[in-house]
Amino acid sequence: MELTLKKNILLGVTGGIAAYKSAELIRLLVKAGAEVRVVMTPSAREFVQPMTYQALSGHRVYTEIFDAEADSAMDHIELARWADLVVIAPASANFIAKLRDGYADNLLLTLCLASQQPVAIAPAMNQQMYAKEATLENIRELGIRGIKVWGPAEGDQACGDVGPGRMLEPDGLLELILGYFSPGKLAGKQVLITAGPTHEAIDPVRYISNRSSGKMGYALAQAASEAGAEVTLVSGPVSILPPTSVRCVSVISALEMRDVVIERAPKADIFIACAAVSDYRVTNPATQKIKKKDTGIQLQLVPNPDIVSEVTELDNKPFTLGFAAETEDVERHAREKLTRKNLDMIAANRVGVEQSGFESDTNELIVLWPKGQQLLALKEKYEIAKQLIDLLADRYNAVE
To answer: pTM of the prediction?
Structure first.
């Protein structure tokens, strides 16, 4: 994306070790052409001194509601009016909770309440703090109110833990800020995405399923939302949290997923079938737990509906991207599936190998369409998702 950002960015910094990353974000914003003003909470000053941000932004840093040295034209109301976008990075759990409840006990909270411009938060906290229902509910509520939630990322944390809660890297935040001021390639489009496995009941405690983690589908939902789309994510049972910017519908079985998709597909512009839907289900699941016996048992299986084929047979079918998880002859099998299921595109990968496919944090895809193909080399799934959404948008806009 071209680095041209002639906008006024108000950067809020709250208390947390990720405050050191805010210095790099300021540098990138200024390099991109933005005017940056920095507001720090009192706890933020325990991690980084205001002089650091002042040197990088070229402007004094604001820290107090009542500041005798503040410029008369830049009190908290005028500063809020000055900004084209307010970005809080890092946004601590404490700040997020106060923002949700409408507190105004420091300059940054006051500015958020006074601003009529969009506000974005980049959460940053320990993974256990992020996973608490109170924090997740606060973030969900802010998203409902229109505050943009960027992140968090997953990975190693300063405390030694590993998991979600890391602030997005500065270059990623810059890309999101640039994207906010530039219409995304999927702006205004309705995108329907399936993700994760399905569980097909054997009895009340056992089921048939597969090793899909949902990570690829969830990453695609995030990337499509960042490209400007209105995203509905239909998810089978997974252990990860959906992006706060998308509408998530949870299902268990293939039949449940099929019903939701067929209801919503006619209104979608784009359908991305990323879920690993179980091919078969038990004909008559037991209503009570099947007791273990010394002899074997037999289960009668019947095929589940082919959700993708049903969608592509609709009179007003959406542009459809399918997925193919293969263990051999990946390209040949994917090309055959592309034709057989009347897909517009298909993304194929080799599963059962290290760093690719189910349960992995990375992936490599070969993307095929009727008259072309492109390899997306091994990267983190979120990075692959962004590349795939970009490629899909180009194909969709070319045939629209």
So the answer is: 0.70
8-181 falls under which CATH superfamily? Flavin prenyltransferase-like (3.40.50.1950)
pLDDT, residue 140, reads 84
Neighbour-count burial of 332, counting CB atoms closer than 10 A to its CB (0-12 exposed, 13-18 middle, 19+ buried): exposed
Q: Which fold has domain 190-399?
A: Rossmann fold (3.40.50)
The residues carrying an active-site annotation are: 159
Q: What is the pLDDT of residues 119-130, one digit of tens each?
A: 999 999 988 889
Q: In terms of Cα–Cα distance, which of 271, 259, 137, 133 is closest to 195?
A: 271
| Same fold? 8-181, 190-399 | yes
Domain boundaries, the chain: 8-181, 190-399
> Which residues does the chain have with pLDDT short of 70?
1-4, 66-76, 157-159, 351-359, 400
- Cα-flanking dihedrals φ and ψ of residue 362, to 5°? -120, 165
Cβ burial, residue 340 (10 Å; 0-12/13-18/19+): exposed
Q: Which two tokens stand for residue 250?
A: 């949870």
